[in-house]
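Appendix C: a fully annotated inverse folding record. The material below is reproduced so that readers can follow the format used throughout the book. The structure is listed first as C-alpha cells, followed by the designed sequence.
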C-alpha cells in the first residue's frame, strides 16, 4: 500500500490518495508459529520467485497469512484536487438524462397538473363563490353548503393540540436546516472537499431551534393553550431525543460487536452539549417570544356546539385519503432516491447538489399542492377535522420512503440476517430515522400550505358576509 501525501505550509501533511497493489505469495513453511511471523514471511518485492501466478485451492487445515506494508510518497496533488475525483459524476450517472428526468418526467407533467388543479380550486373557492354572493340581494336568504356550512367549526382546535404544535415546530426546524444546508452546498460552502460537514449540519439544526420554539408555541397559542413551558420542553426534547436515543442504541450494538464504526462515549459529549446548551435554550427563547406575541385572530369565530360530521363514503376514508396523498410527494424524490441510498450504504458519491436542490423545490411544491387539493375535498364534504389530516396527508410520504428503503435492502444489498443481524438493525434503524425526518419535513409543508389556504378562503368568505 502506497500512501500519497501533500505537505502543507504549516509543516503538517494531508493524505491525498492511496494505491493498493495486492499480491498472492507462495510461501511454504514447516511449522505454524505466531512468533515473528511477519519477519518470516518473504517480501514479494524482493523475491519475485515467491509470487503466486495462478489460483489454487487451499487444502483443508492450512493457514492463510494476511499481511500488508505501507510506503509513504510525496505528491503534488492538493486536497481539493484529490476530492474533485469524488465530486465528479460517477459511472452510470448521466447529467443530461438526469435533467431530462426532472424537466420532462416530472416538472412538466406531475407538477404542472397539480398546479393547475390547485389553481382551479383556489380560484373557484375564492373568486367564483364571492362573486356569486355579491350578486345576491340583501334581503334574500343565503343557502350555505359545502365548506361554507362549516365556517363555525373549521378553526376549532384539533385533538392533542400540544402534540400537533410540537410536530409543526419540529417541521419548521427540519425544513429550515435542510434549506440552509442545500443553499450552502449550492454555493460551494459544503462539499466532500471540506471538513466538518456533519458538524455544520447539526449546528444549523440546533440554531433553528429558535424557529421551532416560536412556531410551536404560536400554533399552541392559536389553540388557546396556556402551558407554553411544557410545550417548549417537548419541542426541545421530543424529536431530538428520539433521534439521539435511537443513535445510542445503534451505537451500543456496534460497540458490542467491537466495530470500528462505533462512536466512543467522549465523542458523544460534544453533540450532546450542543443540543442541551444551544438548541434547548433557543427553543425556550423562541417559545417565550411567541407566547408574548398577541394571539392571531381567526377569520371566523368558532361556534359553541361542534357540528356533527356527515357520514362519509368509503372513498373519503381518512386512512385511504392519507395514503393516496402521500404518493405524489414521494414521487418527487423517487428518481434520485436510489442514488441517495447508494451514497449512504454503498460508498458511492452523490456528485451534483444542483439536482438535489431541484428535487427539493419540486418536493415542496408537490406537498403544498397535494395537501391543498385534499383539504379542499375534505372541506367540501363538510368535514372540518383538517388540522391533523393536512399534516398526515403530506407526511405519509415518509412511510413510502421506509418501504422503498426496505425494497432497496433486499434487492441491492447482500446482507444475511444469520451472519450479520446487527447490520439489519443498523440499516432499518437508520432508515427509520430518515423516514421520520421526511415525515416531519413534508408534514409541515402540507400543513402550512393548508393553513394559508383555509385562512385565505374563510377570510374572503367573512368579508363577503360582512358586506351583506
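Designed amino acids, in order:
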Amino acid at each position: 500500500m502506497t500512501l500519497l501525501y501533500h505537505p502543507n505550509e504549516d509543516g503538517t501533511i494531508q493524505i491525498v490518495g492511496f494505491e493498493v497493489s495486492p499480491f498472492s505469495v507462495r510461501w511454504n513453511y514447516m511449522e505454524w508459529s505466531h512468533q515473528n511471523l511477519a519477519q518470516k514471511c518473504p517480501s514479494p518485492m524482493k523475491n519475485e520467485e515467491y509470487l503466486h501466478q495462478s489460483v489454487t485451492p487451499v487444502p483443508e487445515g492450512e493457514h492463510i497469512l494476511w499481511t500488508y506494508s505501507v510506503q509513504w510518497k510525496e505528491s503534488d496533488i492538493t486536497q481539493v484536487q484529490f476530492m474533485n475525483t469524488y465530486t465528479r459524476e460517477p459511472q452510470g450517472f448521466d447529467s443530461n438524462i438526469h435533467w431530462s428526468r426532472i424537466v420532462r418526467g416530472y416538472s412538466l407533467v406531475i407538477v404542472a397538473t397539480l398546479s393547475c388543479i390547485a389553481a382551479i380550486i383556489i380560484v373557484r373557492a375564492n373568486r367564483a363563490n364571492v362573486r356569486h354572493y355579491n350578486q345576491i340581494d340583501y334581503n334574500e336568504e343565503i343557502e350555505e353548503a359545502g365548506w361554507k356550512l362549516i365556517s363555525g367549526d373549521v378553526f376549532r382546535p384539533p385533538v392533542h393540540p400540544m402534540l400537533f404544535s410540537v410536530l409543526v415546530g419540529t417541521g419548521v426546524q427540519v425544513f429550515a436546516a435542510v434549506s440552509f444546508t442545500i443553499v450552502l452546498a449550492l454555493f460551494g460552502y459544503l462539499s466532500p472537499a471540506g471538513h466538518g460537514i456533519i458538524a455544520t449540519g447539526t449546528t444549523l439544526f440546533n440554531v433553528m431551534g429558535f424557529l421551532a420554539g416560536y412556531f410551536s408555541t404560536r400554533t399552541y397559542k392559536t389553540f388557546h393553550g396556556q402551558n407554553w413551558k411544557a410545550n417548549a420542553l417537548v419541542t426541545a426534547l421530543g424529536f431530538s431525543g428520539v433521534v439521539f436515543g435511537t443513535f445510542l442504541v445503534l451505537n451500543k450494538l456496534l460497540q458490542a460487536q467491537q466495530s470500528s464504526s462505533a462512536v466512543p462515549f467522549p465523542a458523544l459529549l460534544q453533540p450532546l452539549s450542543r443540543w442541551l446548551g444551544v438548541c434547548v435554550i433557543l427553543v425556550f427563547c423562541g417559545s417565550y417570544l411567541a407566547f408574548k406575541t398577541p394571539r392571531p385572530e381567526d377569520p371566523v369565530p368558532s361556534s359553541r356546539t361542534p357540528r356533527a360530521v356527515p357520514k362519509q363514503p368509503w372513498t373519503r376514508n381518512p386512512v385511504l385519503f392519507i395514503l393516496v396523498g402521500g404518493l405524489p410527494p414521494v414521487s418527487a424524490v423517487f428518481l434520485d432516491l436510489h442514488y441517495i441510498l447508494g451514497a449512504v450504504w454503498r460508498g458511492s458519491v452523490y456528485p451534483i447538489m444542483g439536482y438535489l436542490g431541484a428535487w427539493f423545490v419540486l418536493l415542496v411544491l408537490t406537498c403544498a399542492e397535494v395537501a391543498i387539493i385534499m383539504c379542499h375535498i375534505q372541506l367540501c364534504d363538510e368535514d372540518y377535522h383538517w388540522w391533523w389530516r393536512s399534516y398526515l396527508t403530506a407526511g405519509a410520504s415518509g412511510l413510502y420512503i421506509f418501504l422503498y428503503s426496505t425494497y432497496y435492502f433486499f434487492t441491492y444489498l447482500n446482507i444475511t440476517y444469520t451472519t450479520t443481524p446487527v447490520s439489519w438493525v443498523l440499516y432499518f434503524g437508520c432508515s427509520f430515522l430518515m423516514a421520520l425526518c421526511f415525515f416531519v419535513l413534508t408534514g409541515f409543508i402540507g400543513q402550512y400550505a393548508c393553513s394559508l389556504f383555509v385562512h385565505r378562503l374563510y377570510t374572503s368568505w367573512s368579508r363577503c358576509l360582512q358586506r351583506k
